[in-house]
Design goal:
Layout (H helix, E strand, L loop, with lengths): L1 H29 L1 H23 L10 H35 L2 H13 L5 H19 L17 H27 L4 H20 L14 H25 L5 H8 L2 H13 L5 H18 L1
Helix pairs in contact: 1-2, 1-3, 1-8, 1-9, 1-10, 2-3, 2-7, 2-8, 3-6, 3-7, 4-6, 4-9, 5-10, 5-11, 7-8
């Protein structure tokens, strides 16, 4: 079960890495609010259909509904608004390194509110993984403005604040929903409740005059399709894999697995841009693998 939890967490990270590249172009063309107004409802619809087909709605206890709603509002809605804004302004690499900070934040929150304690070996492995994630990002030479994935809009400090906000929201949402997962609730059903709650709020906001889909008029169907696809990959597939991993590990370790997204981005961006990341980036990736091995053993 521990190895399965590791694989699920790393699979979620790989899915998020790909989805962040898919989301980059539509996020900048549509804008944060319109992008999320497309993603959340379409992802909620797909999740609802899947959970209905599986018949797992009743696995979620009424005692956990409040926590799931809080998790959906903070972790899904607010977190995604911050995350997409960070992606829009700073690109996928900067977004992911900032978002990786949800791992230590989740570990701290898990210790404070759930009483979780990391064994020394797991804590050491998690530390190696976090160091590897940081190396894999900070040592990538990606300041060239002719690279679409590295182009920066606005001040870097603002980008950092959006990224930190997304990381904190993700950590809070993860810890809030952990008791429901531990009680035997189907992770897909939990994910569906969270996403549907966020979708209802974002649709309600769209009814306000200043928050309608006014930016979609001249956008191509390709851009809208990319936004929907990125949402399905992130909300439905990646988040469900991460919630499944929660059954095998505590929230801090699972968040660390999810934080390997920046490492996953290295070979993908190399293929996309034709530019190989420098050696320190690959050393960082090796540290992530070593950390995973230590945790597994």
């Amino acid at each position: 079960m521990q190895i399965l939890g590791i694989l699920l967490g790393l699979s979620a990270a790989l899915t998020w890495a790909i989805s962040s590249l898919v989301a980059h172009n539509p996020a900048r063309q549509l804008g944060t609010l319109a992008f999320v107004q497309i993603q959340l409802p379409t992802s909620a619809l797909l999740l609802a259909l899947v959970v209905t087909f599986l018949g797992s709605w009743n696995t979620v206890s009424h005692d956990h509904i409040t926590a799931i709603i809080v998790s959906g509002f903070i972790g899904i809605l607010l977190g995604d608004l911050c995350l997409i804004r960070c992606l829009e302004l700073g690109g996928p690499r900067r977004m992911q390194i900032l978002f990786a900070l949800n791992a230590p934040l989740a570990a701290i929150l898990g210790f404070a509110f759930l009483g979780e304690i990391l064994p020394p070996t797991d804590a050491f492995g998690a530390l190696l993984m976090l160091i590897g994630v940081l190396m894999a990002i900070f040592f990538v030479q990606g300041d060239s403005q002719d690279n679409a994935y590295e182009h920066v809009e606005g001040k870097l400090t603002i980008i950092v604040l959006w990224g930190l906000g997304a990381a904190l929201c993700q950590a809070i949402g993860l810890v809030a929903v952990k008791p429901a997962i531990d009680s035997g609730a189907d992770p897909l059903a939990v994910s569906a409740y969270r996403t549907i709650g966020g979708a209802v709020i974002i649709i309600s906001l769209a009814l306000l005059p200043n928050l309608r889909f006014k930016h979609l008029g001249g956008k191509s169907m390709k851009v809208i399709t990319q936004a929907i696809l990125a949402g399905w990959m992130g909300y439905v597939l990646a988040m469900s894999l991460l919630l499944l991993a929660l059954r095998s590990y505590n929230s801090g370790i699972v968040a660390v697995m999810g934080s390997t997204v920046p490492v996953m981005l290295l070979p993908i961006m190399w293929i996309k841009t034709g530019k190989c990341p420098p050696a320190p980036a690959w050393i960082g990736a090796a540290l992530v693998v070593l950390g995973s091995v230590i945790i597994i053993l």
